[in-house]
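Project standup — Tuesday

K.O.: blocked on the structure for the chain from last sprint. Re-posting the sequence here as requested.
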Amino acid sequence: MCGLIMNKHTILVCDNFGEEFLDHLSKFGKVLQANDIDYSLPLGKVTILVVRSKTKVNKELVDIMKSLECVITATHGVDHIDLNYLAEKKINFYTVPAQSYDVAQGVIAYILAHCTNLVEGDRSMKRGEWKKTSLIGCRVTGKTLGIIGCGKIGREVARLGSALGMKVIVSDPCIQSEDVTVVSLDQLLRTSDFITVNCPLTNGTRDLIGKEEISKMKDGAFIVNTARGGIINEKALLDAVRSGKVGAALDVFVSKTPFEDELAKSLIQNERVIATPHSIGQSHEAIDEKGEGVIKAIEDHLTAKKRNSKV
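H.V.: unblocked you, prediction finished:
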């Protein structure tokens, strides 16, 4: 009976998790794979939808997916999911936040790259320039690392920063913890040498860092955003990097097509910005872990469905 329940499902995977993962999913039923929502696919037959952050699961999409029972997002953030509408339609929702260490590793990599002039050293060598005497960096030991948002990723950043001898402070209205030093956002902005954004994008955090907030920062502060585009106001940040007030590392942008957006494109091309294509937390291990988490979520959904069918 369980096998019959499993095999009748149609699963749409909107991202690339690898062929082995897709093979594992096939035990639950028919598997469809696309880079994003493909309206040429039989969306009305999809019972389980697996997405990452680029796929918007909104009312319009859910209404098309008449058979949808379960949505799984392999992300930490859920700003791309209309949770209220899923609840209204009684569609099960699961999140698989499997990249905490990997994103934190990326945050520290940005900081170390900045401190060692790694990016400019590489760029200048490729231009045929030997800039040894001018590329002078700094130590991270003893510097203050300010973490905005102390969830799973933020705590992992704190652990790695502490291991490097950094003074770690945190601003997060949701925590009061003895194992991290919690300060106000204002104090964090004024005292940090490095600032990393690790909070979700919500109505309350949109444009959390704007012109006024950047003006409070130390001259030469370095800002890292691996969370979501929109938490830092891109116009304010562009003005600040152009003036030399701050440097930045960005793995996310407001626009999903940043090369077509003038603000995002200007940030990407600025020499004081390290830019990556929302890839800093990608690792083979994280992809495997996400795949395992998605499969467990599907099993949990089917178990709950079977249990409810007996009631």
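K.O.: great, moving the ticket to review. The first strand starts at residue 9 and ends at 14. DSSP finds twelve helices and twelve strands in the chain.
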